[in-house]
Amino acid sequence: MDLDALNKIAEAIVAPGKGILAADESSGTIKKRFDAINVESTADSRRDYREMMFRTEEAMKNHISGVILYDETIRQKAKDGTPLVKVIQDTGALPGIKVDTGAKALAGAEGETITEGLDGLRERLAEYYKLGARFAKWRAVIDIKGDEIPSGYSISTNTHALARYAALCQEAGIVPIVEPEVMMDGDHDIDRCYDVTEFALKSLFDELYAQDVALEGVILKPNMVIAGKKCATQASVDEIAEKTVRCFRAAVPAALPGIVFLSGGQSSEQATENLNAMNAQYKDVMPWALSFSYGRALQAAPQQAWAGKVENVPAAQAAFAHRAKMNSLAQLGEWSRALEG
Ligand code: 13P
Question: 272 pLDDT band (50/70/90 cuts)?
């Protein structure tokens, strides 16, 4: 393992003012997004949509360090025949790849899931490396339902799998993004989210250590510590920032180069505002860079503006560039609502 090379990739992903575009929706998920804007999901419409973002130079050159792709996209060509991977590389951003094969029912644990995809992963990673991927993503889904879920069993199996994936990535020269996502569906309060997130992170870093994964070549992609969407008491931005940073300081080793949040169903502006609050108030006490790896919070606005029509491409690119810039400022702790326009 070339840890120096892995560390350089990880540092580039969380360079000041930069973050990740998560464009790795599975075919099922992107269909749902397209249904909402009345666009038929075909290989060509998915290509056109994603190419539109990858060709938004202002966003890609200045604010986006990496793009997470889905298996279909890493093999696709732009309309003019250029591989989409090359379109991304030409902007200076790094191509990445989602390698898990999704969350399946966990045996013996009703209502909980285990993320699959380890079989054949070594060979798949070698191929993805050749296709240009320099980082990867694996997402574990941790639901909160009542007092019994998540179980210790679902957390330990999921974090064990995350560490096996991470070790294989590092062997292949690919930086693993480890994503234990505590879901924000449900009616739990922010303190329950804090406890589950802390437990999941401590379990994850135990497993990474046990499996000899070098943290200098890993990026963490977590949820923020936040109340469930259906909770009657929603926490303020300051409380979310304070509790999220406190939780990470307790659970995330300093050797890790960076943490990139998922947006998880927060509104686009909320995801920006919360990230900004953490960087504006706590940069001095955080040993790692704190940035974004947003799917919905970067793409909701351009999807609305695009609606599948060629004539809307400039407006959609402007919407994407705007959100990328707002999140870039949030990474620096320099965002303010007045800049939203
Ligand atoms: P969201 O930002 O839409 O949560 O997506 C990020 C992601 O990659 C989840 O796995």
Answer: very high
CB 323 near ligand 1, within 6 Å:
no
Kindly state the average pLDDT of the residues 26-33.
Answer: 97
Distance 222 CA to ligand 1 centre (A): 10
Pairing type for strands 64-69 and 219-220 reads unpaired
CA of 297 to the centre of ligand 1 (A): 8
Task: Please tell me if the CB atom of residue 221 comes closer than 6 angstroms to any atom of ligand 1.
Answer: no
Residue corresponding to tokens 């704190």? 290
Residue pLDDT, tens place only, 125-161: 999 999 999 999 999 999 999 999 999 999 999 999 9
pTM greater than the 0.90 cutoff = yes
Q: What is the pLDDT of residues 43-75, one digit of tens each?
A: 999 999 999 999 999 999 999 999 999 999 999
Contact 254, 312 (CB under 8 A): no
Q: Domain 3-340 adopts which CATH fold?
A: TIM Barrel (3.20.20)
Domain boundaries, the chain: 3-340
Average pLDDT over residues 110-130: 98
